[in-house]
DNA sequence: CCCCAGGCGTCCA
DNA sequence: TGGACGCATGGG
């Protein structure tokens, strides 16, 4: 586990040249590997569309073509364009990001294609608001460590973490990157092969079926 | 061939 | 209100 975590630099983990790229990346990475998002971002940059203002005015088909590698590209293209238009209507990225955390969140969550995780990701990594981001990796790690069997509930996990930590954006960026990188190495199902799992020693699944006895 | 990916909106019991 | 489903390309 330490070998994985020691290589993470929270300032490099979600790197972006502009705040706009955080918004674009947050939408494109939904249910998608980051390597495919990078391809799409390169395409958008090459076409001069890697900003909220340019996306708002861009041709829908050209957006679709550029972001195809991320999958769900028709949905994402429409949502990217409409979200960009809404943000421009609200004064642009800089103004929206300068709003108080709750007002920013309310705008983000009202956008089609922006749910709780995406809104929190944008607020945290784009606007430096101290909000903890939950995702499937976070849930995968927590549910195994604490032996939770109930369905994934975003709000419950978020409230629990924020209740036992100081509300600090840099801390939450670091924690999120840890959960994601750890989660990537944790089995998806109740896989009995735990030898190389970074959390095998504290995983309730392994304890239950005895595969961690060594 | 299979399963999975840094979700979300919609629909239905 | 929560569980299933469609969205779709790319990688292992």
Question: Can you tell me about this structure?
Answer:
By secondary structure, the chain is an all-alpha fold. Helix content is 61%, strand content 0%. The chain is built from 14 helices and no strands. Helix 6 (60-67) packs across helix 7 and helix 9 (101-109) crosses helix 10. The model is unreliable at 210-214 (pLDDT under 50). The structure holds a DNA duplex (13 and 12 nucleotides).
Overall mean confidence score, pLDDT: 93
Number of strands: 0
Helical content class: 55-70%
Characterize the main sheet: none
Approximate strand percentage:
under 5%
Structural class given helices, strands, pairing? Answer: mainly alpha
Q: What string, H for helix and E for strand, traces the elements in order?
A: HHHHHHHHHHHHHH
Distance between the termini: 17 Å
Mind telling me the C-alpha Rg? 19 Å
**Given the structure, what is the number of helices?**
14
Give the overall silhouette.
globular
Low-confidence stretches are: 210-214
Topology:
Elements: H1 2-5, H2 10-13, H3 19-28, H4 34-46, H5 52-57, H6 60-67, H7 73-89, H8 93-98, H9 101-109, H10 116-126, H11 136-145, H12 154-163, H13 169-184, H14 204-209
Helix pairs in contact: 3-4, 3-10, 6-7, 9-10, 11-13
This protein binds a DNA duplex (13 and 12 nucleotides) through helix 3, helix 4, helix 7, helix 10 and helix 11.
């Amino acid at each position: 586990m330490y070998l994985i975590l020691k290589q993470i630099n929270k300032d490099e983990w979600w790197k972006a040249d502009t705040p706009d790229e955080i918004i674009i990346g947050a939408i494109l990475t939904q249910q998608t590997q980051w390597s495919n998002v990078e391809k799409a971002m390169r395409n958008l940059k090459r076409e001069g569309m890697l900003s909220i203002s340019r996306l708002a005015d861009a041709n829908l088909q050209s957006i679709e073509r550029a972001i195809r590698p991320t999958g769900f590209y028709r949905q994402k293209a429409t949502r990217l364009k409409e979200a960009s238009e809404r943000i421009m209507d609200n004064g642009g990225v800089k103004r929206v990001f300068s709003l108080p955390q709750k007002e920013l969140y309310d705008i983000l969550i009202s956008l089609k294609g922006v749910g709780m995780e995406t809104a929190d990701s944008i607020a945290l990594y784009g606007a430096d608001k101290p909000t903890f981001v939950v995702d499937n990796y976070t849930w995968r790690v927590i549910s195994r460590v604490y032996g939770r069997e109930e369905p994934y509930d975003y709000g419950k996990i978020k409230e629990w973490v924020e209740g036992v930590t100081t509300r600090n954006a840099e801390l939450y960026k670091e924690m999120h990157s840890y959960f994601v990188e750890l989660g990537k190495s944790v089995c998806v199902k109740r896989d009995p092969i735990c030898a190389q799992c970074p959390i095998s020693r504290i995983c309730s699944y392994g304890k239950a079926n005895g595969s961690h006895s060594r």
